[in-house]
From TrEMBL:
SUPFAM superfamilies: C-terminal effector domain of the bipartite response regulators, CheY-like. GO terms for molecular function: DNA binding. This is Two component transcriptional regulator, LuxR family. Keywords: DNA-binding, Phosphoprotein, Transcription, Transcription regulation, Two-component regulatory system. The modification 4-aspartylphosphate is found at residue 54. Coiled coil: none annotated. Signal peptide: none annotated. Residues 6-119 form the Response regulatory domain. GO terms for biological process: phosphorelay signal transduction system; regulation of DNA-templated transcription. Residues 135-200 form the HTH luxR-type domain. SMART domains: HTH_LUXR, REC. InterPro entries: CheY-like_superfamily, Sig_transdc_resp-reg_C-effctor, Sig_transdc_resp-reg_receiver, Tscrpt_reg_LuxR_C, WH-like_DNA-bd_sf. NCBIfam families: PRK09390.1 (NF006900).
Length: 205
């Protein structure tokens, strides 16, 4: 994700959109308004920031919006706005990936705090994505033999065992180990393991 973090407000009620735009802008937060979930999905391929959406809307409602956002590579944090009678829907929204829900009518300060928390989560996620992408690129730079040695190291095997498994001398294992540690920019075996696990989660997720 790239660009400025924006609060995307998705609500079919014009008065609500305008009120939230004023509130967010008064707190110095960039905001973009969308009159429906369909309009949002049609205009946005990715989002840097967060989404604030009403849960009850004609057509694609807040729950369905969350389901569709799950298909994105890096879905943004979503806050859903609910009425007092919509707690079951709010719980369902959380199950579908919403990071928070806030009941109408809500306190301005509580709303802004929730938005800032979501934006902070979005920033941390973006940084994490960049770090994992760098790790994946480093792994791709390894030779086939270096990758084999790394897999064995991550599995907790000693150099002698790795050498026996791969049919090479322990000295050769040490050379490959030194090279792959340098390429991976890993200062220790524990750091290498953390990198490998992060890349595995990225691949599986």
């Amino acid at each position: 994700m790239s660009g400025e973090a924006v609060v995307h407000v998705v609500d079919d009620d014009l008065a609500v959109r305008q009120s939230l735009a004023f509130l967010l802008a008064s707190d110095g937060l960039p905001v973009r308004l969308h009159e429906s979930a369909t309009a949002f999905l049609d205009s946005m391929a990715e989002v840097t920031g967060c989404i604030v959406t009403d849960i009850r809307m004609p057509g694609v409602d807040g729950i369905e919006l969350l389901r569709r956002l799950k298909q994105w590579d890096s879905p943004p944090p979503v806050i859903v706005m609910t009425g007092h009678a919509d707690v079951p829907l709010a719980v369902e929204a959380m199950k579908q990936g919403a990071v928070d829900f806030i009941e109408k009518p809500f306190d301005d300060d509580a709303f802004l705090a929730a938005v800032r928390s979501a934006l902070d989560r979005s920033r941390r996620s973006a940084v994490h994505d960049e770090v994992v992408s760098a790790i994946v690129r480093r792994i791709a730079s390894l030779s086939q033999r270096e990758r084999q040695v790394m897999d064995e190291l991550v599995a907790g095997k000693a150099n002698k065992v790795i050498g026996r498994d791969l049919g090479i001398s322990p000295r050769t294992v040490e050379i490959h180990r030194a090279n792959l540690m340098a390429k991976m920019q890993a200062g220790s075996l524990s750091e290498l393991v953390r990198m490998a696990l992060a890349a595995e989660r990225h691949r599986d997720g």
